[in-house]
Structure formats: C-alpha cells, structure tokens
Write a structure and sequence with these properties.
alpha/beta, 10 helices, Rossmann fold, six-stranded mixed β-sheet, four-stranded antiparallel β-sheet, globular
Length: 259
C-alpha cells in the first residue's frame, strides 16, 4: 500500500444504517505512531467510526459507507481493495475479551498461519506475547485454553493475537470497560509501549483514560437538529482538548455537564 502523510485520513465520511444517518461527514487525520482517543456520549457513532477504519461495518446488514477512508494514502473503500487485506494491516481489539476457544499458543499462531506465515512459529508466538506483556505469565502454559486466563490476561492475549500478523494500526473499542482497575492500568501501560511500533486508535467512555493515554483526542457528539446524527465536534492534541477546548460543547462534555 502507498505511504501517506497520515496513518488514516477520512474525507467526508458518512455512515448509514438503512435510511438512518448514524455519522455525518467526518474529516479526520490520524497521526502515525500516536494514540488517538475517540470520545463522546453514548450513541454518537464512536464505535461506528472506528469500525469504518477497517471495514468491519460491512459485516452488519444494511450499513452503507460514503466518502473516503485513506490508509497510507489509498481509499480502502475502492472496489478493488480486499477487506481481508485491510484488516490484516488494521487490527481490532474489542470491548469484551474474545480469545478463541483454543490453546494460548494457537490463539497467536492461527491468524499468522492463515495469513501465510512460514517462518519459526515458536518465535512469533513468543514475540507477540512479549509484545503484549504476557509472556512471563503464560510461557509455561501455552497449551492451556486461552479462555482459562483472567479477564485482563485474555484482553492482552487478544492484543497479542492482533500484533502477531504485524499490522500497521491497532483499533481498540473500549478495551478496558470489562476490566478491573489493575488490569486497566496494565492495558494502558501496554498502549504506550505499543505506540512505539503501531498507530493506536481507542474508543473510550472514560475521560480520565483518554487524558492519560492519548496524544490526540477526537470528540464526537450528536447533531442538534433532532436527527441524532453523530458528528465530529472537535479534534486536536489531547492536552489542548482537555484544558483549552475551542467549543463550549466540548468543554461541557469533558467537565461532566452532559453525556
């Protein structure tokens, strides 16, 4: 794929569920090797936008996407672009840990294998688990089922599974919402480590988490025309969004006046 100035850039991105416009005309530029947080009240289209970045919305009936999503300079919605190939470059970690009902080893190896990986699988499994800060905890039980791990470990296993196929970008849809505070802290620390090698985009309801982990923040809210269309209200460096936002609606949301 071509290189571009941004890891992901959207141009007039609009997403529809049937005749309902869920998200309207989003223009967004995601920086390489940074953590970008997407925040906003429930129902404003945060996860819908995130899933548009690797064409996951296409798995939902009656979803239509308009506009462009440029990955390394190329529109991933062009007809000739293979969505499976897009998802290999742009991985996804979901809200609830969802390890395969296979061994810890096979959770990592399976995706690499179906993507044609032919080198030393043991080394890849170890590298991915180390990358997800999980190797020291599971290296002596790789044959155990991935579902036997704790919630926080399962989520790190899912992150290891995502990075095993060597993506460029990792999407995270509220990856800590089902975890306790200690496990959440481990995931947040891991995000900072991963950002050295990957671009990370995270959807979170947790304002403190967005402020802690992200370099940039995109604030979405609902349009005030009664149509309940999600719109990008403000985007910029996280420090500026949280300390000196340009719009009153952003300030009201961050300070807890609504949402």
């Amino acid at each position: 794929m071509q290189n571009g100035n941004f890891a992901i850039e959207t141009k007039d991105l609009a997403i529809y569920y049937g005749s309902f416009q869920a998200v309207g005309n989003v223009n967004l530029q995601i920086e390489h090797h940074k953590i970008t947080a997407i925040i906003g009240p429930s129902g404003c289209g945060k996860s819908t936008v995130l899933r548009a970045f690797n064409r996951m919305n296409e798995l939902i009936p009656e979803v239509a996407t308009k506009g462009e999503v440029l990955f390394n300079g190329r529109n991933i919605y062009q007809r000739e672009v293979d969505p499976v190939e897009v998802r290999r470059h742009i991985g996804m970690v979901f809200q609830k840990p969802n390890p395969f009902p296979k061994s810890i080893y096979e959770n990592i190896a399976w995706g690499a294998r179906i993507n044609g990986y032919k080198d030393n699988m043991d080394e890849l499994v170890e590298s991915a688990l180390r990358g997800a800060a999980l190797w020291d905890e599971v290296h002596d039980k790789l044959d155990q089922n991935g579902t036997s791990l704790s919630g926080g470990q399962q989520q790190r296993l899912c992150i290891a599974r995502a990075i095993a196929v060597k993506p460029d970008i990792i999407l995270m849809d509220e990856p800590c919402s089902a975890l306790d505070p200690i496990a959440t802290l481990r995931i947040e620390e891991l995000m900072h480590d991963l950002a050295r090698e990957y671009t990370i985009i995270i959807v979170t309801h947790n304002m403190q988490q967005a402020a802690r982990v992200s370099d940039f923040t995109a604030f979405f809210s609902l349009s005030d025309d009664g149509k309940r269309t999600g719109q990008l209200m403000e985007y910029g460096a996280t420090k500026k969004i949280f300390t000196n936002p340009e719009k009153k609606i952003t300030e009201d949301y961050i300070t807890g006046r609504f949402g």
